[in-house]
Amino acid sequence: MERTVIIVFLSVIYSALQINCQEAILHISNGGTDRQYCIVHNHSWTPLSQTLDAAVQYPLVNMISTLLCDTSGVSPEVVKGKALVVMRGECEFSQKALIAQSLGATTLLIASNTSLIMPSANESEYAKVQIPLALMKYRDFLEAQQVFGEGMQVKLYAPTQSKIDPSIGVMLLISVVTVALGGFWSGACERDRLSTGVTGGGSGENKADSGELSLYSPLKVFIFVALMCGMLVLMYYFYNILVYIIIAIFCLASATALFSCLDAVMEKMRCGTGSFTIRNVNFSVRSLILAAVCISISVIWGVYRNEDRWIWILQDLLGIAFCLNFMKTISLSNFKICVILLSLLLVYDVFFVFITPFFTKNGVSIMVQVALGPDASGEKTQGNMVEVPAEPQAPSEKLPVVMRVPRFLALAQNLCGMQFSILGYGDIIVPGLLVAYCSRFDVWINSSKKIYFLSCCIAYLLGMITTFAVMLLSGMGQPALLYLVPFTLITSAVVAGCRGEMRQFWSGTTYEREELTAP
Length: 519
Hints:
Blueprint: H1 2-16, E1 18-19, E2 23-29, E3 34-41, E4 58-62, H2 76-79, E5 83-87, H3 93-102, E6 107-112, E7 116-117, H4 123-126, E8 133-137, H5 138-148, E9 153-157, E10 161-162, H6 166-195, H7 204-209, E11 213-215, H8 218-237, H9 239-268, E12 275-278, E13 281-284, H10 285-303, H11 311-329, E14 330-332, H12 335-355, H13 366-372, E15 387-388, E16 402-406, H14 411-416, E17 420-424, H15 426-444, H16 451-474, H17 481-498, H18 502-507, H19 509-517
Parallel strand pairs: 4-5, 5-6, 6-8, 11-14
Antiparallel strand pairs: 1-10, 2-3, 2-9, 3-8, 4-9, 7-15, 12-13, 16-17
Helix pairs in contact: 6-11, 6-15, 6-16, 8-9, 8-12, 8-13, 9-10, 9-11, 10-11, 11-15, 12-15, 12-17, 15-16, 15-17, 16-17
């Protein structure tokens, strides 16, 4: 009995997580070759099969020269029991469908030279149409003609899209591993710095000497957040100009960050550097090779940045390197600075995601508009009307400030236009700075179990899981810092309080400086 209840419960949950989308798939074959094309349909008409195997195959009759607004010039014997493709225009979709149905056609495809939209009609018309109806791109039909000729066999099916996509798991893995590695690297650098006998507790001056930058003043934190707000607003109003500047900066910064990461790995593996001298200037062979590789990857991304099918891999690789290097280079001097910075950025995130839609003309938040670009459609929400361009569009530039992973189960949607799950770099870097501080504090107190670092990493994982859970339940994107900041800050504070180290944890590098200089 219990087993039956569990199975029924899981079945209900699975059904609730399935989404019927407007995009569907047209499968064309001739026995030896097959292709798949994007089509758009309406579930209020006769629904399509959910799998290719369940779909019925019909021969396709090419009547692209007619609009099928009446039966003149069309012989029932030619189309009976077959799928029919006609041109869009002059009369309603329902009128074309009823005429095709009266002629004995089993399926109606409407080729369109304009954007594909969900075919709709009056409520009374839906029940009259008993055959599947869908729109396809005219250019796709011309391509199919060149590939298959006139002997085309077609199947129409509409796979359901699950709200839970493997891309969420990949995104969770990327974020957690990046935060953990960044924090570990920061702690390792602090251990190396202390082992060399450098004192000063990570003060801004000593950090600068080692190529690192420390935020130790609340005023600097306020200025930093104010600059972020100003930059975001400027990006919103001058996106088309500033986007190219940001792309150029990202290419340079990500290549430098990737070099720093790979060089650290090579150093850990004790790979030889190999050097030679030209005009009294020493050159490291390893550094030259790494620099060439990193610059090449960055340039390839810059050239092919709008190729959605594969370039996301390079963008995520460069993004991971950028986040790691940021967490290693920028350090927060104490928990007080962590609380101020993360709290301000939490307010910043919530304001620009939830509040700004009330002030923008199109009702889209400034954060989403800047992150996805002015006319990006990769993150359409459930219920939005689908509109698929009939012709290839010039790619719109997007800021390289997010991790992107394609939605692997959105088969029909990816056929019409790649769909991505995204996570902003800030959702990794901002909590990552606190994780890095916890890692350095473990070094300062000689914690062999790395209790602060591990606790903060677990808190970050739980915060990310909560973020994705709320996103799936609400059906809309969430400002991740709304959940990550409380999880990580509260967890760190609780650990420090339970261990009786809150004073030291709050003071941070000041405490370390006192301990190191004590007689």
